[in-house]
Amino acid sequence: MKASFKKVLLVSKTTRIERFLKRGLQFTPMIAKYNKDDWQEGNTVHHRVVECVHNNMGKMGVEAEVIKESELQQSDVEGKDLVIVIGGDSTYLRTAGFIESSDIPLLGVNSDPSRRTGALLNAEIDQQSMEMQVPRMIEDLLGHQYSYFHRTRALFELDDPMRGTQIRKLCLNEIFAAEKDVSCTSMYKLVIDNKDMGKFKSSGIIISTGTGSSGWLYSARQITPHDVSIVQQMMGIENQSEMINENLSALISSQNIFPHDSDQLYYFVREGYVCDVKQYSWRAEGFCNKVKVICETIDGSLQIDGYYKHDIGIGDTFTVSSSPQYSLKCLNFGSPVISPSRTTYMHAPSNEAKCKQQQ
């Protein structure tokens, strides 16, 4: 069987216990009692899956290299036909940040679905049936039983003449900027699509892509059943249904989510200080193509996709632009199941594996 992917990079997540020990922390009696065994088991499960994928690729004639996410560099990705993330969403986001070319596809594999959801991942491997699932997954790769879809990314740019630095990063989910001290008000000015929106005071600003709109942005903007209940009370509706409130809140909140291949961004002033609702609401959030942020923070920080952090202060200016030309090429198996929140692709276990799981 001729391989369509000759050079594959396998990026392995850093497990919880690996992160814990890397920081030089010690297991207290309390942590050892409630966390240690589960962390060790999760570590074992993950590395078994990584080893299984690596070994089976070698047997099927695919040149595969394994690298830890913490050691990943831009040069590791260059020249590869396919990059496979084995782990969870955080590893997927970090790895995507190193893939600038829209020609290198990325596949996300959830190595432990019992412990993580993996909203961005396109396949999952169950430990109990991985000896059957992994070979079939590789066979599908070699047999071209897959398709591609694209996630639009944002381009973050910051020029810092004082420090002599220039930062340019691709963002798949969201960018967040605020004071490091969460009890301090974050102050900044916004220019949206070349229109000056003025100055804001809030707990920070979120700038999200379509992919990220079902994550942090969704949580920040979601309507709760309690919110729906309060509105009904104000309308004089006393006999309320809990189920209706839950369904209404979910329906309204789902409108916050937009397609992963959208060419637009969404900016949201989080927990803003409002002195004039009429002058504030229309400026504080909305769709756009480019956001310019002029910082007035004293000791601030910005975060890109949860893994990249950079200090910011008064006078620092950065832009975030929708960049469909840098879309991330993603690989999935079978037919996509499309929902308003995201496109989820599951590589289902075989009937034999399902029977084994039910035993």
TrEMBL record:
<dbReference type="GO" id="GO:0019674">
    <property type="term" value="P:NAD+ metabolic process"/>
</dbReference>
<protein>
    <recommendedName>
        <fullName>NAD(+) kinase</fullName>
    </recommendedName>
</protein>
<dbReference type="GO" id="GO:0006741">
    <property type="term" value="P:NADP+ biosynthetic process"/>
</dbReference>
<dbReference type="InterPro" id="IPR002504">
    <property type="entry name" value="NADK"/>
</dbReference>
<keyword id="KW-0418">Kinase</keyword>
<dbReference type="InterPro" id="IPR016064">
    <property type="entry name" value="NAD/diacylglycerol_kinase_sf"/>
</dbReference>
<keyword id="KW-0808">Transferase</keyword>
<dbReference type="GO" id="GO:0005739">
    <property type="term" value="C:mitochondrion"/>
</dbReference>
<dbReference type="InterPro" id="IPR017438">
    <property type="entry name" value="ATP-NAD_kinase_N"/>
</dbReference>
<comment type="similarity">
    <text>Belongs to the NAD kinase family.</text>
</comment>
<dbReference type="Pfam" id="PF01513">
    <property type="entry name" value="NAD_kinase"/>
</dbReference>
<keyword id="KW-0521">NADP</keyword>
<keyword id="KW-0520">NAD</keyword>
<dbReference type="InterPro" id="IPR017437">
    <property type="entry name" value="ATP-NAD_kinase_PpnK-typ_C"/>
</dbReference>
<dbReference type="GO" id="GO:0003951">
    <property type="term" value="F:NAD+ kinase activity"/>
</dbReference>
